[in-house]
Amino acid sequence: MAYVPRFAYDIFISYARADDEPDAQGVQWVSDFQVYLKRAVKQHLAGYEPEVFFDSLDLQPNQMVDSVLTNARGSAVFLPIISPSYVERPWPNDELQAFSIAVSEKDRIFAVELLPPIGDYPLALRHLKRKQFWWKDQRQGSAPRKLTPKAKTRIYMEYLEDVAYLIARRLREMNEAGAQELAAAPNRRKTVLLAEVTDDLWDPPTGAGISGAIRFQCAAERGLSGNGSRLCCGVYLRSGER
Fold it and tell me: Is the pTM here over 0.85, yes or no?
């Protein structure tokens, strides 16, 4: 169950499969990141474990597309892991577009940059802040280098904690707003009223006829019907045959 009411997931992690391949040290960057992130967000939510959508399957074209995109639309926040592969692959861009179309609040996107893209950023990310998980030192070479749990570990964990804190803060805001909406929603409980029996079923107190009088009394104080309406029905036989 998601922490934020009315959402299927609290966090949707969008990434390119190529970015989760094990490196020379055995680090699967995205898989490891989502594990640490989930733990850190849980701490900032006072022990409540967030519901995270992390698709570790290697999907083929047209396989489970609708399901994944529906989950993107139904998530409270969206976390894209940007890289050259992310920008150029269709799958991550489809997920980003699905969320961006469904959600107007841009502060629900928390972009993490694993490596700088070669081309331009997707339109939905061009004007957003991005947490940079790479570094570059001209003295040690020209290629950007990833921060990982095994390379510059301290900086990696500090940056991850920053992302987790910001996400948890936004989830708290959405949780509180959702709780207020639920509290302010109109009372949907129903009271079912049954009409008084007609004269042909009403017998005088002599007891002659079908069972005298059958009276149904329904109220909202007790009981619960299958559709969520509170219902209490009592059947009283005033006199006559059973």
Answer: no
